[in-house]
């Protein structure tokens, strides 16, 4: 699903109005009706105080129109107009007139007004600012936002939590609504998925307000949200008359004394994802434990006992996954540098192999085309330098990925994959996966998919999704705390089954 910028949403808005020959207030009414239906389906007339805080732009207009619909259906409402500017939008004013015709008299909050009381049992509708926010809210509006956040009431944000800009981190982190739930119009917003801004969102859901399909289709979005719908077409079925050679030979290179488990995790995940053959290359000390723990994996050893010092491959693998537990010793860095020069097929580069690259930027030019780099935030910083905020990070990372022609995976709660100027935002995974070795499993999964013939970009998108899904399935059975990297691998098979199962079973995963 495409993620639009604010400007693209305004364009889609305008296009819809022109093509469908409607007026803009009709679109607002559609939006308000969808909001109303969502609330009504859950409350079913329950008597609870609904306090609507409405700005003076179109987000506020949505709020006012919603208030009218709630009132018409017998709900107890109070409308507070947050009067932060003289420049009221046309459709806000129209809806203000309509609500007055219904004998509802909003309370106007200005700079010197007392803040209205909010009980923890109230429902607050946040329609103060929408996607039009372009500067920090005034102090008194900020105080109101803090007052709402302190109320403990359920806060339903319209379109986007007020105070959250669409294209940068907030100017003042206290001046942003901490929404309990966000009902967002038509398309997801990038800020929902970034660590600095996603914290204000909690849960979100999209409402289809009828923006024209043609404009949604033809707009090129810089980011795409990856759900099951995007994943299923990437799946490559296993063929009846295939053999293990059909599914590729993966090489997993890594480990050092005390860190052989990382290779074990990656090799096991690689096999479980379907790689036909897997060979691990480790320092001598890893031989026995690997042979015993993952019997399906073939093992080659370095001449060095504790570290990788010279990588000699007796065959040409289809793909190499490298870096887990490998360390950053001088001799290891040299061996990795030589391998980069020799290898033509794409590699999946992780962990200390990334740290070696960061320390030796000259090596970057030797990375095989369409290789996949999987840094966590600290490793990313070593590669691309410090950033100002999440948007700056994405821009810097995009530039890096383009310059070196690699697929860059920024790992996190919503892992983002960058390639050739475009971003793919993952939707699976959970905080249980913040655990030792879960990155090693991801490297194994992606390597296993490349081995089977998935295009590197698709292998990455599919692999990141599958990894998170396997973690989600495990967590749904045993809870977040019990998620261990090795347990994620045990659910890879269930993950595939989930991806291939009929849609109604997995519908709930499409929400945030
Ligand atoms: N296509 C869509 O998705 C539709 C969007 N609609 C609503 O329209 C909203 C966008 O409306 P607007 O463009 O009117 O913008 P907002 O309602 O977000 O903000 C109102 C205006 O306030 C001004 N402003 C920005 N930052 C400010 C600040 N810190 N202090 C004071 N004033 C500030 C700006 O001039 C802005 O246009 C969406 O979020 C959505 O709720 C709906 O009405 C229907 C259609
Ligand atoms: N809060 C979270 N929500 C979802 N996924 C997470 C979260 N924290 C970590 N992960 C995932 O777990 C993996 C951790 O990788 P990494 O930090 O490299 O672990 P390690 O180095 O221990 O192997 C990544 O795929 C990341 O996206
Ligand atoms: K809002």
From TrEMBL:
User: What EC number(s) has UniProt assigned to this enzyme?
Assistant: 4.2.1.136, 5.1.99.6
Q: What positions does the domain YjeF C-terminal occupy?
A: 227-499
The YjeF N-terminal domain, residue ranges: 9-217
Reactions the enzyme catalyzes: (6S)-NADHX + ADP = AMP + phosphate + NADH + H(+); (6R)-NADHX = (6S)-NADHX; (6S)-NADPHX + ADP = AMP + phosphate + NADPH + H(+); (6R)-NADPHX = (6S)-NADPHX
Q: Where does AMP bind?
A: 411-415, 439
Q: Which Pfam families does the record associate with it?
A: Carb_kinase, YjeF_N
Q: Is Calcium there in the keyword field? A: no
What are its cofactors? K(+); Mg(2+)
Q: Where does K(+) bind?
A: 59, 126, 162
The UniProt keywords, alphabetically, are: ATP-binding, Isomerase, Lyase, Metal-binding, Multifunctional enzyme, NAD, NADP, Nucleotide-binding, Potassium
User: Which residues take part in binding (6S)-NADPHX?
Assistant: 58-62, 130-136, 159, 262, 325, 376, 440
Q: How is the cofactor bound?
A: Binds 1 potassium ion per subunit.
Q: How does it assemble?
A: Homotetramer.
Q: HAMAP family from the entry?
A: NADHX_dehydratase (MF_01965), NADHX_epimerase (MF_01966)
**PANTHER family tied to this protein:** ATP-DEPENDENT (S)-NAD(P)H-HYDRATE DEHYDRATASE, ATP-DEPENDENT (S)-NAD(P)H-HYDRATE DEHYDRATASE FAMILY MEMBER
What's this chain's function? Answer: Catalyzes the dehydration of the S-form of NAD(P)HX at the expense of ADP, which is converted to AMP. Together with NAD(P)HX epimerase, which catalyzes the epimerization of the S- and R-forms, the enzyme allows the repair of both epimers of NAD(P)HX, a damaged form of NAD(P)H that is a result of enzymatic or heat-dependent hydration. Bifunctional enzyme that catalyzes the epimerization of the S- and R-forms of NAD(P)HX and the dehydration of the S-form of NAD(P)HX at the expense of ADP, which is converted to AMP. This allows the repair of both epimers of NAD(P)HX, a damaged form of NAD(P)H that is a result of enzymatic or heat-dependent hydration.
Do you know which NCBIfam families this protein is assigned to? yjeF_cterm (TIGR00196), yjeF_nterm (TIGR00197)
By sequence similarity, the record places it as follows:
In the C-terminal section; belongs to the NnrD/CARKD family. Belongs to the NnrE/AIBP family.
What name is this protein filed under? Bifunctional NAD(P)H-hydrate repair enzyme
Originating species: Flagellimonas marina
User: Source gene?
Assistant: nnrE
